[in-house]
Amino acid sequence: MESEESLAFDANNLMILQASSAHPLLMKLANKLSHRSTQHLQLFFHYVFHSPALACFLIGFFGLLCIELQLIAIGPLSHKYSQQAAASVSDFSNVIASSINASMYNRSATYANAVNARVDSVQSTITDGMFGWVNGTTTTLNDMINTFYTGIQTAVSTGFNGMVLESPVQEFIRCLIGSKTSHV
User: Fold this and answer.
1) Rounded distance between C-alpha atoms, residue 26 and residue 106, angstroms
2) How far apart are alpha carbons 80 and 118 in whole angstroms?
3) Which residues cross the membrane (predicted)?
């Protein structure tokens, strides 16, 4: 008993026949590749190469192709302008750095001047409080020594009034006392 395969003309088989006739080259390729799963491969090819699916595939493919062409075209432009952009960013960062440095210098100079004025004020207060009496005492002592020296000179001038020895005695007094008081 030999069994023959018979093909019934139902709706599924008629659709496969219609699709196979629409894409004969694909069906020939599917039949050569796999004999066991021919029907599955045929359905896959019908699905992939169906007009709306093929249109979506081609739109996506050409979209990706356009993007790749744009990336290839943008490469040299990007390389050319990246150096200019780096230079302008560097110049801008130098301007910012110099502006910050100038501002910091001005503010630190103002702060340093204020601190120095405060330190001078405190130093003057301490110096006057601790050593103020020295200035008063020194001034009084210097005035007294100058008055004493002037008094001696006046006494010698009065005592030797125009005599020959007045000048040598005045020189002796200047040498003995005057040279010491002129340095104080």
Assistant:
1) 82
2) 58
3) 44-67
Sign of the C-alpha dihedral computed for residues 92, 93, 94 and 98 taken in this order: positive
Measured CA to CA, the distance from residue 174 to residue 167 in angstroms comes to: 10
DSSP assignment letter at 50: S
CA 62 – CA 53 distance, rounded (Å): 14
Distance CA(85)–CA(77), nearest Å, equals 12
Question: Are the C-beta atoms of 30 and 38 separated by less than 8 Å?
Answer: yes
Tell which phi-psi region holds residue 162, choosing left (phi > 0), alpha (psi between -120 and 50) or beta. Answer: left
Q: What are 143-160's pLDDT values in tens digits? A: 888 888 888 888 888 888
Backbone angle region of 77, left / alpha / beta, with phi > 0 → left and psi within -120 to 50 → alpha: alpha
